[in-house]
Amino acid sequence: xxxxxxxxxxxxxxxxxxxxxxxxxxxxxxxxxxxxxxxxxxxxxxxxxxxxxxxxxxxxxxxxxxxxxxxxxxxxxxxxxxxxxxxxxxxxxxxxxxxxxxxxxxxxxxxxxxxxxxxxxxxxxxxxxxxxxxxxxxxxxxxxxxxxxxxxxxxxxxxxxxxxxxxxxxxxxxxxxxxxxxxxxxxxxxxxxxxxxxxxxxxxxxxxxxxxxxxxxxxxxxxxxxxxxxxxxxxxxxxxxxxxxxxxxxxxxxxxxxxxxxxxxxxxxxxxx
Amino acid sequence: xxxxxxxxxxxxxxxxxxxxxxxxxxxxxxxxxxxxxxxxxxxxxxxxxxxxxxxxxxxxxxxxxxxxxxxxxxxxxxxxxxxxxxxxxxxxxxxxxxxxxxxxxxxxxxxxxxxxxxxxxxxxxxxxxxxxxxxxxxxxxxxxxxxxxxxxxxxxxxxxxxxxxxxxxxxxxxxxxxxxxxxxxxxxxxxxxxxxxxxxxxxxxxxxxxxxxxxxxxxxxxxxxxxxxxxxxxxxxxxxxxxxxxxxxxxxxxxxxxxxxxxxxxxxxxxxxxxxxxxxx
Amino acid sequence: xxxxxxxxxxxxxxxxxxxxxxxxxxxxxxxxxxxxxxxxxxxxxxxxxxxxxxxxxxxxxxxxxxxxxxxxxxxxxxxxxxxxxxxxxxxxxxxxxxxxxxxxxxxxxxxxxxxxxxxxxxxxxxxxxxxxxxxxxxxxxxxxxxxxxxxxxxxxxxxxxxxxxxxxxxxxxxxxxxxxxxxxxxxxxxxxxxxxxxxxxxxxxxxxxxxxxxxxxxxxxxxxxxxxxxxxxxxxxxxxxxxxxxxxxxxxxxxxxxxxxxxxxxxxxxxxxxxxxxxxxxxxxxxxxxxxxxxxxxxxxxxxxxxxxxxxxxxxxxxxxxxxxxxxxxxxxxxx
Lengths: 273, 281, 336
Ligand SMILES: Nc1ncnc2c1ncn2[C@@H]1O[C@H](COP(=O)(O)OP(=O)(O)OP(=O)(O)O)[C@@H](O)[C@H]1O
Ligand code: SF4
Ligand SMILES: [Mg+2]
Description:
The complex is a heterotrimer of chains A (273), B (281) and C (336).
Chain A: H1 2-8, E1 12-25, E2 31-44, E3 48-52, H2 59-66, E4 74-79, E5 82-83, H3 89-95, E6 96-99, H4 103-106, H5 114-120, H6 130-143, H7 148-151, H8 161-175, E7 179-183, H9 191-208, E8 211-216, H10 219-225, E9 228-233, E10 236-242, H11 243-248, H12 253-261
Parallel strand pairs in A: 3-8, 3-9, 6-7, 7-8
Antiparallel strand pairs in A: 1-2, 1-4, 4-5, 9-10
Chain B: H1 2-10, H2 12-35, H3 65-101, H4 103-118, H5 121-131, H6 137-148, H7 150-164, H8 167-173, H9 179-187, H10 192-215, H11 226-235, H12 246-274
Helix pairs in contact in B: 2-3, 2-12, 3-4, 3-6, 3-7, 3-10, 3-11, 3-12, 4-7, 5-6, 6-10, 8-9, 10-11, 10-12, 11-12
Chain C: E1 4-17, E2 20-33, E3 37-42, H1 48-55, E4 63-72, E5 75-76, H2 82-89, E6 94-97, H3 111-122, H4 130-146, H5 163-174, E7 181-185, H6 193-208, E8 214-218, H7 222-228, E9 231-236, E10 239-245, H8 246-251, H9 256-263, H10 306-310, E11 324-325, H11 330-334
Parallel strand pairs in C: 3-8, 3-9, 6-7, 7-8
Antiparallel strand pairs in C: 1-2, 1-4, 4-5, 9-10, 10-11
Helix pairs in contact in C: 3-4
The structure holds adenosine-5'-triphosphate, iron/sulfur cluster and magnesium ion.
Adenosine-5'-triphosphate sits between chains C (15, 17, 22, 24, 42, 44-50, 60, 62, 99, 220, 288) and A (157-163, 188).
């Protein structure tokens, strides 16, 4: 089924058109906040697209709409040429998964971390037995630089932020989805481990044809992993294009501002010195 | 989570409260079996002070005070547990359904909670008690439960609302779970400690409420509870001054105080262990 | 007044539980001079947060102090009773803002009321008088201004604030009593670049306004450390790998781990183009329940020698530089 859809259209994995989300609050005097307005972009199969912008710019709103966690006010999202709402929910999540920014809230403190990984198998079609599952879990964790015996069987508060975040990446790998929405997946990990994760995304893209929407604020990472970048501000896309072009010749003043704010190792910001 | 329970066992408040409670529970459950009929009146022994045969003396009807006390503890606990258990259940249902179903269900449940919050409990209870025939312990528990859940529902609601914002709920959804599964397996377990605290408090307040109502004679007047003993000790004394028969009203008074103190100390211990948020900022 | 605001001597803290014994902080010594911002960086899971918890006197339930001393303003915080620690040290001399502390804001209370709760807790008064409340709010508003937050924020609920704002609110509350030392764990990690920048400026303002005097700043992110700190420590697997002034450590790292860590950070040429490939360090960090013998970095170190596998390296200094590194490679250079 997936193969027919792969050949069925123009190699586009995800297409968002005119995506708009308005949040309304209050019962009597309603207040409307724009989460996203008229966002249009696509991700090809085996492509990594970065979505950049500061917090509140609507990146996560877009991510959540794609993940079917919130409903768009208007606009369409299509996965492999079909509206995402036409998929059965399990079928959909088998293909689209996410890694969230804050690992502290992504784990249920009530359970040991294995819970999240075990649950991921519920989406897979192969009915693996315990041993097979634990074998896959172990090898997946090792592939992302975690020592399985060190993290498995522990409660989330017993692990460091970085260990938790890598576990979440491991979870989405277990499901084996084709599209990964990575919402700042490296915010909690050190540079070396981060390099490992970015390289992992690149190799998954190359070997398995994984498509990624990589949400980040770090141009260095965006430039490293992606071909194209979309810059958002206050819910709207202000600039979109090939990564090197956007970053070397930013058109929109906001993009320039964003670039200036990136801390680099060898220079200090003027204001701070 | 595990660490929490270990801490609870190390909490002095919790353990002391629990010890007192266990002793009282033993008195209330084992006592009645060993001591026989609490309503048995020995008319030759009316209003006798404590002695070897009757360690807490007898009532002015010739009933053994200690025997009555034990069954009163048991019965008061039954009222408390029924009211606490049922009240907690209602609070969970009303408090959790709103945030989960959203929309109309949410509005209705909040409205119901807010209305119930301002209902005057005692007059309501008096009305119900006078209408309903044959009040028994369980029925009283139910009535108390029906009138005591609102504040708990409200705070459960706010807890569910914050837990719902946590990313692990989204992650569960993305693992193919539906709303009911998510509430049951992801949200409620995290509130276990809190729900226990609600249960403890509702139990305590219900015991107190039942006693207060008994003392003014609107609860069951046929089953011995702590309030019932206090009521009769004041109203039916053959001796001119009721304080002359102190062994009849002091023991239930002390036991009631001890029981409630134990419950609130348990609650305080749990609060210290489960809500350390503020302390460390 | 003690000479250093913070002195840590051979500090050891292990987690003990059903999972075994995790040697999360294993023999860390450092001193923090008055007026200095010291940064601690290192791999995730390397014990940075654990160190912060130990130093701030708030170890979580399963973390046990196994040895060493922590002197805050000359006072040995593990040698006084908990009441004294609470009233004399915490908040007044030292304040600790834990990792992901935004979540400690009460979601159903306005910031204003939450502040009253905290002050009430601190001063063991359930209810504050209205004059006291006014005072507290003035203080809080003043701190928030320094941190770049407007007064109306006081009347908002946490969910109406962005992550960066929540974080700054928590910092404002934690510094209400003008602590000399602020210990802050990963305040920027969950933020985007613009908010990160604002956060770092806010922290600097806090020091300029003399609300705080010194700071222990913990982050896995060397680039943010670079913007803020004068001195830095690189930690690996529960131990200090390198210690020195910020410039020196970044431009000329001594320890192989620091070198590989800085190499894994994207850097740009003048046109904003990235130079070279990002390399992660081969292998994975050690299981801290069974830390490797000798130098803890030896299983992953490209320069490993025989001595590294058995003998733990002491600190070696080189030349004029402040601090030094715990690595046998430096033994010959430093001539010890
Ligand atoms: N409560 C706990 N119980 C048991 N082990 C723990 C606990 N908290 C942390 N650990 C372990 O201690 C080690 C150090 O963790 P710590 O949180 O101090 O790392 P960190 O350097 O702050 O990492 P990060 O940058 O990812 O936040 C890790 O191996 C972690 O798994
Ligand atoms: S002591 Fe040896 S193993 Fe450790 S960092 Fe230095 S050279 Fe590498
Ligand atoms: Mg940490």
